[in-house]
Amino acid sequence: MLKFVSWIFFIVVALVICALSIANRHDVMFSLDPLPFVFDLPLFLLLLAAGFVGLIIGSFVTWRRGSKVRTENRQNRRENADLKGQNTKLTQDIAETKAASQNNMSPTSAQSPRLEHQQ
């Protein structure tokens, strides 16, 4: 269902871009005022380029703001891996200790002692 919605959204955006391109075909002069660069470009090209530049800048800003969270996630993953390793080692140590204690015990000492009541 989500894939269907994303395709519908993509088709709508594509139709809007096509309509924008057809309606704004006339050339406009683009200049960066203090610089000597002057271009005659179709208006839709300038609008799409401005949208693309805004998308890139917004993505970069979002990526930079998320750096703290990504750093914390990396540290948590490392700590989690270390703790899993320690847990595995301790579990093996417990199993070895139990096996060693069972091998050292005689069958008679393994049974619980019986208390006799004297009256």
Automatic annotation (TrEMBL):
Residues 67-119 are annotated as: Disordered. The chain crosses the membrane at residues 41-63. Residues 37-86 form the Lipopolysaccharide assembly protein A domain. It holds the Pfam family LapA_dom. The keyword DNA repair does not apply. It comes from the Bacteria. InterPro entries: LapA_dom. The keyword Magnesium does not apply. Keywords: Cell membrane, Membrane, Transmembrane, Transmembrane helix. Residues 69-82 have a biased composition (Basic and acidic residues). Residues 99-112 have a biased composition (Polar residues). This is Lipopolysaccharide assembly protein LapA domain-containing protein.
